[in-house]
Design brief:
Blueprint (H helix, E strand, L loop, with lengths): L27 E10 L2 E11 L4 E5 L6 H8 L7 E6 L2 E2 L4 H6 L1 E4 L11 H11 L4 H14 L15 H13 L5 E5 L7 H18 L2 E6 L10 E6 L2 E7 H7 L5 H9 L11
The protein binds adenosine-5'-triphosphate (ATP).
């Protein structure tokens, strides 16, 4: 399916169309997805959606199945059961259209430490077939969006852990995706770096209209206005606006709701609203 939406603020005519404008289309839709590693069932009948211009937290302990889900959405793994759509494009049937609208930050870092910030971005842009001049202007643009413009010429090796993560987010934005997936993007970072990253990512939602799926195991990364999906041992235990998930669990914060739903002890991170 294609759309011919006019470019919105911050977009150029050659950018991917902004299907967010198309009523009812989800940035990401997961329907009936299951996945097994041999006899081990990692995901069991997963169903949820991420709306355009929304922040959805995918909350789960280690081993819940978050990375497996990301591997399916990005087509690292083939889909065994179910369907995944990105702005209405089925990733099995129209992978090119779907992946063009998707940006991803995986858990392991994949930057070239010996290149500069800009060189890393230019290299990645070339892989996406973005011309040199366009790549330079886009690099400046994404570095500004993510608060790294002053480090454009620095060697990546000289950046802090939080700055490296922000560079990875900038890199994921180079081809101007409309949906961004981040897998435990703040792991190993201090409180300030985590807050910086979250604040930049939330700005992408409110200012650029990007739909975000944020996988985490930390309650304090979730705010009252987010959508929440609670994933536990491969199953979704609850989903919806944070306030509704908390209320339906008969709890008064995300931490307590998670413990009630899963019967587990507290996770790292401080209580969310
Ligand atoms: N390659 C694999 N082979 C066999 N089992 C796997 C493989 N990868 C993941 N699993 C299992 O699938 C389940 C889900 O793992 P997954 O990595 O998706 O969870 P996660 O929520 O991302 O956790 P983490 O943050 O620790 O990666 C776990 O039980 C895990 O042991």
């Amino acid at each position: 399916m294609t759309t011919s939406a006019a470019p919105t603020a911050g977009q150029n005519a050659q950018d991917p169309p902004a299907p967010a404008c198309t009523a009812g289309i989800r940035a990401l839709s997961i329907s009936g997805v299951s996945h097994s590693y041999g006899p081990r069932r990692a995901l069991i009948d997963i169903n949820f959606a991420v709306a355009p211009a929304s922040f959805t937290a995918l909350l789960g302990l280690n081993g819940a199945g978050k990375s497996t889900l990301f591997a399916l959405v990005t087509r690292l793994f083939g889909i065994q059961a179910g369907h995944i759509g990105i702005f209405g494009h089925d990733i099995g049937l129209a992978p090119g259209e779907a992946l063009r609208l998707l940006g991803v930050v995986f858990q392991p870092r994949t930057l070239d430490l010996d290149l500069s910030v800009t060189q890393n971005l230019l290299y990645h842009a070339a892989l996406h077939g973005i011309g040199r001049r366009d790549a330079r202007s886009r690099s400046g643009e994404v570095l500004t969006q993510i608060g790294l413009a002053d480090r454009a010429g620095s060697k990546v090796r000289d950046l802090s852990g939080g700055q490296m993560r922000r560079l990875e987010i900038a890199r994921a934005l180079l081809h101007r995706p409309r949906l961004l997936l981040l897998d435990e993007a703040t792991v190993g970072l201090d409180v300030k770096a985590r807050a910086d990253i979250l604040s930049h990512v939330r700005q992408l939602v409110t200012e650029q209209g990007i739909g975000v799926l944020w996988a985490t195991h930390l309650f304090d990364e979730i705010t009252a206005s987010d959508d929440l999906v609670v994933l536990h041992q491969g199953r979704i235990l609850a989903q919806g606006p944070v306030a509704r998930v908390i209320a339906e669990a008969g709890a008064d914060n995300v931490n307590a709701a998670f413990m009630r739903l899963t019967g587990t002890a507290a996770l790292a991170g401080s209580p969310a609203p």
